[in-house]
Amino acid sequence: LEGELFDVFLEGIKVGEVCVTPQEAVEVELVTPGRVLRAFRSLTWPRSDLTIQPPNGATLVNFDTNFYTDNTTPSTQTVTLLGRTVLIEATPTTYTWHFGDGESASTTDPGAAYPALDVTHDYARVGTFAPSVDTTYTGRYRLDGGPWVAIPETLTVPGAAQALETIEARPTLVDY
User: Fold this and answer.
1) pTM of the prediction?
2) Which of 120, 104, 125, 109 is nearest to 52 (CA)?
3) Among 23, 50, 76, 163, fewest CB within 10 Å belongs to which?
4) Residues forming a β-bridge with 35
5) What is the DSSP string of 76-116?
């Protein structure tokens, strides 16, 4: 049966699931997981700020450049669907690091400040790059203060690119 699946609760206890057509859901004005998913997708969730070390927009070729974000905690937003209060929570679970040179990596780790080198990248050539980090959120919701229900799909928020220049360091012998 094609339609929307929604949970059935009796006195606050989940007793099953029922599939109804979109038209049936409209007729009885049910808040379905499909409606919550659409609300989850339509809301604006935080974009992760990318921190690059060394700072100030420059790094060395063939050097561990460190990347991290502080976006690690769940965010919540309240919406009203069909007159009912729905609390939606989005938790960052995956970070996709785009290093700007065609390389990327996905982690569940947000990275960390130096000296922890959890997410690093070595640039192989001199140039200007535009690294960024995308954040994938998992979601859950509660209807009118009821139990939490998982949202069946994730949502990815693209990160803003930052300018990063790679330079080459050359050793020079100096006579004191």
Assistant:
1) 0.79
2) 120
3) 23
4) none
5) EEEEEETTEEEEEEEEEEEEEEE-SSS-EEEES----STT-
Place of tokens 């009912």: 84
Q: Are 6 and 22 in contact (CB under 8 A)?
A: no
Report the distance separating Cα 35 and Cα 30, nearest Å.
9
Which single residue is written with the structure tokens 């990248």? 121
Give the mean model confidence (pLDDT) for residues 149-172.
Answer: 94
Q: Rounded to an integer, what distance in angstroms lies between the CA atom of residue 67 and that of residue 14? A: 43
Which residues sit opposite 155 in a β-bridge?
A: 137
- Which pair of structure tokens corresponds to residue 137? 């959120």
Strands 164-167 vs 58-60: parallel, antiparallel or unpaired: parallel
Q: 167: Cβ–Cβ under 8 A, 6 or more apart, which residues?
A: 58, 59, 60, 61, 126
The rounded distance, in Å, linking the Cα atoms of 3 and 22 is 6
Confidence of residue 83 (pLDDT cuts 50, 70, 90): confident
Residue 152 preceded by cis peptide, ω within 30: no
3-class state of residue 58 by DSSP: strand
